[in-house]
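Hi V.,

You were right to ask for the full record rather than a summary. Here it is.
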Amino acid sequence: MDHEQLSLEFHVEQTAWGKWVDPARRAAQTRKFMRYAEIKAIPPQPWPEDSAEVRRLNTVVAELFPDLATAMAPEMADMADAFICFIGECFAKFAGAEWIEYDWPGREFTFYEDINPALRFDTYDEDEVTAWYLISSMIEYSPEEYSGMFADMSATIREYSSYHDEKRHEEF
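Predicted structure:
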């Protein structure tokens, strides 16, 4: 039998979701945001509320995304995606989150055409939160409660990290 005849070569079209969720693509986008924001590494633990890096990232994020319309503008799509991938990596590391494909609600409520990435958290409730909701909530943060947008996001990361830790400790 000739082994060359057994070759099954065919092209599989990758979906928009498959392209977006590809780990190599997301890692490259995460690195892009980290280079832009001058972050050497995601810390081993969630950022403390009063850390110098949170204060610096408050400024970086506010300059990039002063409002939701700017964050969703076509010219900001690549940097918004880079930030979304970065935040996803933080939630994955600290809260056991994973990206899932969520129902597409229309372009008004997602940063992407035809896809709606969401994070499913490894918590008792297995919360599912869309990237759009995370970013829009961060942009609309309460200045009375947080010192800036990233301070709000880092508080959310710490909160989900604690839920994840509670679940993991009870499993053992």
